[in-house]
Automatic annotation (TrEMBL):
It is an enzyme of class 5 (isomerase). InterPro entries: DNA_helicase_pif1-like_DEAD, P-loop_NTPase, PIF1_helicase. It comes from Amphimedon queenslandica. This is ATP-dependent DNA helicase. GO terms for molecular function: 5'-3' DNA helicase activity; ATP binding; hydrolase activity. Its EC number is 5.6.2.3.
Length: 580
């Protein structure tokens, strides 16, 4: 109808123009409307996604905030700790000896193959074989530079995956001091392993969801785990590490499908509790600890082997190095015993400590048992000039690890003490650290906790031989009495020292030079399989059970004919543990 289309007084042309403008507005409004409809749909998607997220967050609500905090601290340590020599990868690589370089190159070739595979498309991956994780045992006598090699491999992994923001390589060891030595944390701390209680190994427990998420986030980029001083890891703890890694990386492959390097010397100290790492975990143990699984020997089923043979620690004292080799293999002949007996001193140990200290470097006193260390530390503390707040003491961080990136095992000197804090100058940290009391909660078994509040320090004029494994020392006073209770213990203590002149023995009982024939057999098995170019070791018949007792000669000229000093008093408490 023309009247409806053309208003009064309007020409047809004017009406037409007006309709075009109206029409355009309608089209625009329609478009806007459609957009709004789309937005509404999107908003619904966003709201649904948020709701799902909230559900997930509720799912992992903090079931044990204290444990989560503890795990966060541990993960921070993993990130922060570095021995900090400041060397580049190229510098480290150039310092490796031929033996170390061979193993370094083997690891590098493997990692490059892994990267090549990771960079393949899904389709290409389907057509090629995946690169199996490297599970290798790097062995070598004490001082062949295993820890030195670890530093180079750590730097290598970091540089190969330098674009990743989280940890790509973590290092751990069974004791704090050994871990500190290689810029790592303890295996218990890293993997939150069950803690032994009352001499009993605890059963495996799964990490609650929130804590699990913290660990998983921090370790999501992990390419390699290095476990140093593996001789002290028990086969049960190895199983727990494997299980923890399976849980963390949601994989049922060995060690969650990650590369693992085991480093150490199985002729050094065995685990304080439990069976050696190469032992089978029996079906009954697994049933008792885990409620399932049949007997496993993860070690035999997984590890390949290589060995370092060039001694770097005792390289300036070849005779000492050869003597140590005999002690290590359980063939301490009369010449060895005669040489060692010349290192026995008769002066009171506190006096000897001062004499050696005046010569330049204070010795570290190595005792087989915790109580012996405690007694000696007490004596040394009582002998300090009084009153004083500045004492010459070496201290160990005990069990915490979240302060200034320190871990259990760091050695330092106390500079000042107040009621609330202790100032300590740690050996590898430039500025003195203020140490405050810490409160810790330990899960000893599922839902059973122990609380401790204390300064995380203990005196360390003396440390147990277990704690010193991994160290290199200029001087040590060593107790090789009948208190030496384990195979490899005497060898570990003696081989810490760079030269024979740095060895000072409180006494020498030839029975203390024990070795484990099972460890020798395991080295022979591995050598035969992976290093047939190396000879098989002979198995000593007595494995350290020599009957002859030795009254050592004395290195103090004025006391040439005196008898050996009796070993320091030892509390014979049945509950005392060889190492804390
Ligand atoms: N290639 C090298 N060049 C120079 N020094 C080295 C080299 N390798 C190792 N060292 C030095 O030799 C000493 C012993 O090395 P390291 O502690 O790594 O031996 P280890 O095999 O781990 O000993 P242990 O089994 O007793 O723990 C250290 O002081 C280390 O710095």
């Amino acid at each position: 109808n023309e009247d409806e289309l053309v208003h009064d007084g309007e020409t047809v042309q004017e009406a037409f123009d007006r309709h075009i403008v109206d029409h355009k507005r309608c089209v625009e409004a329609n478009e806007k409307f459609r957009k709004l409809l789309k937005c509404r749909e999107k908003l619904k998607d966003i709201q649904d996604a948020r709701a799902a997220n909230r559900e997930e967050e509720n799912d992992v609500e903090d079931d044990d905030p204290q444990l989560t905090g503890q795990i966060k601290d541990a993960m921070n340590d993993v990130r922060d700790i570095d021995t900090g020599s400041g060397l580049t990868l190229q510098e480290r690589e150039s310092m490796l000896n031929v033996d170390q370089k061979r193993i370094f190159d083997h690891v590098k070739a493997h990692l490059l193959r892994q990267i090549e595979y990771e960079n393949k498309s899904k389709q290409e991956k389907g057509q090629s074989e995946s690169v199996k994780p490297l599970h290798m045992f790097i062995s070598g006598v004490g001082g062949t530079g295993k820890s030195f090699l670890i530093e180079a491999i750590k730097a290598l992994v970091k540089s190969l995956w330098s674009t990743l923001t989280k940890q790509t390589c973590v290092v751990c060891a069974p004791t704090g001091l050994a871990a500190y030595n290689v810029g790592g944390v303890t295996a218990h701390r890293l993997f939150q392993l069950p803690i032994e209680h009352d001499g009993q190994c605890a059963s495996y427990w799964s990490i609650p969801k929130a804590s699990h998420k913290v660990m998983k986030t921090e370790l999501q980029d992990l390419k390699m785990v290095i476990i140093d001083e593996v001789s002290m890891v028990s086969s049960l703890n190895l199983t727990y590490i494997h299980m923890r890694m399976n849980d963390l990386f949601e994989s049922d492959k060995w060690f969650g499908g990650k590369n693992v390097l085991f480093v150490g010397d199985i002729l050094q100290l065995p685990p304080v509790r439990g069976q050696p790492v190469f032992d089978k975990v029996t079906a009954s143990t697994l049933k008792y600890r885990l409620g399932s699984m049949s007997a496993v020997n993860i070690w035999r089923d997984t590890v390949t082997y290589d060995e370092l043979t060039i001694n770097e620690r005792q390289k300036t004292d070849q005779k000492f190095s050869e003597m140590l080799d005999k002690v290590r293999r359980g063939f301490s002949d009369d010449e060895t015993l005669a040489t060692l007996s010349e290192r026995v001193f008769s002066t009171p140990i506190e006096k000897k400590f001062k004499i050696v200290q005046q010569g330049g470097n204070a010795p570290v006193c190595l005792f087989p048992k915790v109580d012996m260390c405690k007694d000696f530390n007490k004596t040394m503390l009582a002998n300090l000039p009084s009153p004083t707040i500045k004492i010459r003491a070496t201290n160990l961080i005990d069990g915490t690890g979240s302060i200034h990136g320190l871990v259990n095992g760091a050695l330092g000197t106390v500079q000042a003490i107040s009621e609330t804090r202790i100032t300590v100058k740690f050996d590898r940290i430039t500025d003195p650290c203020e140490i405050e009391k810490v409160k810790r909660k330990f899960m000893v078994m599922k839902n059973v906790f122990v609380y401790r509040s204390q300064f995380p320090l203990i005196l360390a004029f003396a440390v147990t031989i277990h704690k010193c494994q991994g160290l290199s020392l200029d001087n040590a006073t060593i107790d090789l009495s009948e208190n030496v209770f384990s195979a490899g213990m005497a060898y570990v203590a003696l081989s810490r020292v760079r030269t024979l002149s740095g060895v000072h023995l409180t006494c020498l009982n030839p029975k203390s030079l024990m070795v484990s024939s099972r460890s020798i057999k395991e080295i022979n098995r591995l050598r035969q399989l992976y290093r047939p170019d190396l000879p098989q070791y002979a198995i000593p018949t007595d494995c350290g059970s020599r009957k002859r007792t030795l009254t050592g000669t004395i290195d103090e000229p004025q006391a040439k004919n005196q008898k050996n000093m009796p070993p320091p008093k030892v509390a014979r408490d049945k509950r005392s543990r060889p190492s804390d």
